[in-house]
Write a structure and sequence with these properties.
Elements: H1 8-14, H2 40-47, H3 62-75, E1 79-83, H4 86-97, E2 103-107, H5 112-124, E3 128-132, H6 138-142, E4 149-155, H7 167-176, E5 181-184, H8 189-192, E6 202-206, E7 220-224, H9 238-241, H10 252-256, H11 260-273, H12 279-289, H13 292-312, E8 316-320, H14 330-336, E9 344-349, H15 352-362, E10 367-368, E11 378-380, H16 392-397, E12 405-408, H17 414-425
Parallel strand pairs: 2-3, 2-4, 4-5, 5-6, 10-11
Antiparallel strand pairs: 1-7, 6-7, 8-9, 9-12, 11-12
Helix pairs in contact: 1-3, 3-12, 4-11, 15-17
Length: 426
């Protein structure tokens, strides 16, 4: 059976690590900083990128590569790279194609950390970002582009607003301006959506969420579809299409073809910035991936039941979940996420912010944690916690109401989850 034809459930369990005769069945943890070679010449070829192989874990490690390969296969990409966090994945993706004097366009409704990364930190490095309303018409969004725009960014399902991105629309706009579309697919996971199938060029993940699925380890991943033609826009992307003096004048697109983007991210950015995922964390991530195809449908099933229950509850002011027929994004969810969106929903209680805080303090089973998307149900009040640096106006711009409770529905028995909400409301 040819592997490309394998279903996602099989890939979750089998992809990445292929033990040979007498090798360990389970992916080993290569807990070593360095790797031995017989001759100086062999080592020299590795440093010149003339041969692929391992010499230092900051650049590549067999455990990490096996897991990155599994994620690439799940997304339908050509190559992937693990990073120390989802934040590092988004930073490396932007910095791999942008430099001082460049510009990016991003949806406003994205994770608060990414919003700060693009709006504040990259600005200090000379890279500007224009934020756009992802639901605006194409011609309006197109006005944000400049001659120096190098990428477009959005989240498949936004954190914490659970807004669904119209990927095809974003891809059309990005490609019309000769730039790649980067989609953060953390909440949907490749189980529920593969953005490459809808025109995205690069996908990022916070593997900390559903991929790990057990709140064990922080991590990130960048996956390249191999579809964006960097050479067709060579003047825009000199870093990929012109000789890299730090590698003896090697040109990534000419030497590595479809692997140019990930090779440059690894051999240049990881070399210099070093935000690696530890092999131990990659090992734990791989264990999580083995059940991803089982957990994600259960998260979605539970979240749908909770959302429907909340919608009928008279103490609830509003509920936001793409699986609800009343939801603004229901049609987009039906199109891009026919098997379910994610386990995260948001809602507000009558009485606003203070009532929300009292409700959360009364929960017993459901925990208040700065996390989403693991096996256990948890809540967060972004206005008081993750997004507390934003004003009420900025919160609303980011699609976050000041009374919004972000609820990550776990894979416990749904009757127990609903019972806990009920008693806390009482």
């Amino acid at each position: 059976m040819e592997e490309k034809k394998m279903n996602k459930g099989t890939l979750c369990v089998q992809a990445g690590w292929k033990p040979k005769n007498g090798e360990p069945r389970v992916l080993p943890i290569y807990q070593s900083t360095t790797f031995k070679y017989e001759t100086s010449e062999q080592m020299a070829r590795l440093f010149d990128l003339e041969e692929s192989g391992y010499f230092y874990t900051r650049l590549q490690n067999p455990t990490n590569d096996a897991v990155a390969s599994k994620i690439a296969e799940l997304e339908g990409g050509v190559a992937a790279m693990l990073t120390s966090s989802g934040q590092a994945a988004n930073f490396f993706t932007a910095f791999n194609i942008c430099e001082a004097g460049d510009h990016i366009v991003s949806a406003t409704s994205i994770y608060g950390g990414t919003y700060n990364l693009f709006g504040v930190t990259l600005k200090k490095m000379g890279i500007e970002c224009t934020f756009v309303d992802q639901d605006a018409p194409e011609e309006e969004i197109a006005k944000a582009f400049r001659p120096n725009t190098k990428m477009m960014f959005g989240e498949m399902i936004s954190n914490p607003g659970v807004m669904v991105l119209d990927v095809e629309k974003f891809a059309r706009i990005a490609h019309r301006h000769g730039v790649p579309l980067v989609v953060d697919n953390t909440f949907a996971t490749p189980i529920n959506c593969r953005p490459f199938e809808w025109g995205a060029d690069i996908v990022t993940h916070s593997t900390t969420k559903y991929m790990d699925g057990h709140a064990c380890c922080v991590g990130g991943c960048i996956v390249d579809s191999g579809n964006f033609d960097w050479e067709a826009h060579a003047d825009k992307y000199p870093g990929l299409c012109q000789p890299d003096e730090s590698y003896h004048g090697l040109t990534y697109t000419k030497t590595f073809g479809k692997l140019a983007f990930i090779t440059k991210a690894t051999s240049q950015l990881m070399r210099d910035l070093g935000a690696i995922q530890s092999p131990q964390n990659a090992f734990l991530l791989n264990l999580g991936l083995e059940t991803l195809h089982l957990r994600v449908p259960q998260h979605c099933k539970n979240a749908q039941a909770v959302a429907e229950w909340l919608e009928k509850c008279d103490k609830v002011a509003w509920v936001n979940y793409p699986g609800l027929k009343s939801n603004k994004y229901h049609a987009l969810a039906e199109k891009y996420l026919p098997n379910g969106s994610c386990g995260v929903l948001s809602f507000g209680l009558k009485g606003g912010r203070d009532v929300a805080i009292r409700f959360m303090d009364n929960l017993k089973l459901i925990a208040i944690v700065t996390h989403v998307a693991d096996a256990r149900s948890c809540v967060l009040h972004p206005a008081s916690h993750t997004h507390r640096q934003l004003t009420d106006e900025q919160l609303r711009e980011a699609g976050i109401a000041p009374d919004l409770i972000r609820f990550s529905v776990g894979i416990e028995d749904v009757n127990d989850i609903i019972a806990d909400i009920q008693q806390a409301l009482g």
